[in-house]
Amino acid sequence: MMEIKHLKITMLVALVSCTFFLAPTQVNAANYSKSEAKQVRYFQNRYKKLSKKVYDENNLYTVEPNFAEPFNPGQLKAAYITTSMDYVNYYRKLCGLPSESNNDKVNRDAQIGASALAAINAKTSLTAHGLLGYTRPYYISEDEWNTAEDATLGNINFLESDTGASAGEIVTDLIKDDNNLDGSGNTGHRALILSARATRMGIGAAYGSSNKKFYSVQNGVFADDILRPAVKDVVAFPSSGVFPYELLDSDTPWSIYFAKRRLTRQPKIYVTDLTTNKKKRAIHVRNYGTDYFGDGYTSAISFDPNISLINTHKYKVEIRGVTSYSFRLFRQKDTLKGPKKVVHKTTQHSK
Fold it and tell me: Which residue blocks in the chain are alpha helix, DSSP H?
């Protein structure tokens, strides 16, 4: 089988991560321009509607997998799949990309992939992609095994937790890509979610047959999508406009993907806090070349901004000699308040 995608994998070890966010504060619309405030309210309202329901082995399925003869990959709760795609498309909208669709066929294939990983209790390793080096269990047919091999070429997330996770936490872990087993700075999971070619994605998930590890699969590698023209020339994370402060913790690499430009060198990158006029040169700059070509990109750069991030501040990213863009931070979990209304009252007194 020809591998058509750069291998990508991640592990979510615990649901509680160490971050350095400031305590929630009330931010007034005066911190933003009129157009920025409109965007902030749109994304805050959209984020508020996203389900935060936590799933575990007891409430994940409508039909549980059967890891014996006859093999049954199981069936996920519809709400888990819907919520997963809601988060995928929320992040795609943030980055100026169209929504992806979801159908029974791609979900079924993704579920076969996740259940195959669960059946063999796959190790947290890059070899999980394509089930490399694993022996097909006797109760899984060759056709199902082939389907699982293809589906697991997409994104895989491993979760080791006794308390489960929400669908949104799985997708968010993949988009942040701050613990990629393929190497620090590799944002391949993000590139798949933010593909400039993809039109659909399948969602699968299953608990290991004996290790109880939670395997999640995003089935998003399709030959017809790879042949499509990119819908956007440049896709950045964080993106231009406004961007959630919560997505940019200290371990999260920044990235920029190019669909029509090929960079053969390692560019100099500068990040400026336009609110304070402080400028820093980015560090850990990596050029992944055409590694994410299947996602529509001929060049991919990741880097550490090397600058303090403050909510409501505006930042400029300059890739010297290539491109530049700016964005302002907002908290997606807050509600942006409008300007205070000043009401003048007068009373006519009778003589």
Answer: 34-49, 78-94, 104-119, 142-151, 167-176, 188-193, 223-226
Cα–Cα dist 290/268, whole Å: 19
The sign of the CA dihedral 251, 131, 216, 289 is positive
Give the domain ranges of the chain. 10-14+29-226, 234-330
Interatomic CA distance for residues 236 and 324, integer angstroms: 10
pLDDT tens digits, residue range 211-243? 999 999 999 999 999 999 999 999 999 999 999
Cβ neighbors of 53 (< 8 A, separation 6 or more) are: 79, 83, 166, 167
pLDDT in tens, 11-45: 444 333 333 333 344 566 668 999 999 999 999 99
**Claim: this prediction has a pTM higher than 0.85:** yes
Dihedral sign computed on CA atoms, order 276, 278, 284, 289: positive
Task: Tell me how far apart the alpha carbons of residues 274 and 157 are, in angstroms, rounded to a whole number.
Answer: 36
pLDDT per residue over 265-305, tens digit each?
A: 999 999 999 999 999 999 999 999 999 999 999 999 999 99
CATH fold group of domain 234-330? Immunoglobulin-like (2.60.40)
**What angle is formed at CA 57 by the lines to CA 54 and CA 58, rounded to 5 degrees?**
85
Q: Tell me how far apart the alpha carbons of residues 281 and 261 are, in angstroms, rounded to a whole number.
A: 23
Looking at CATH, the fold of the domain delimited by 10-14+29-226 is given as Pathogenesis-related Protein p14a (3.40.33)
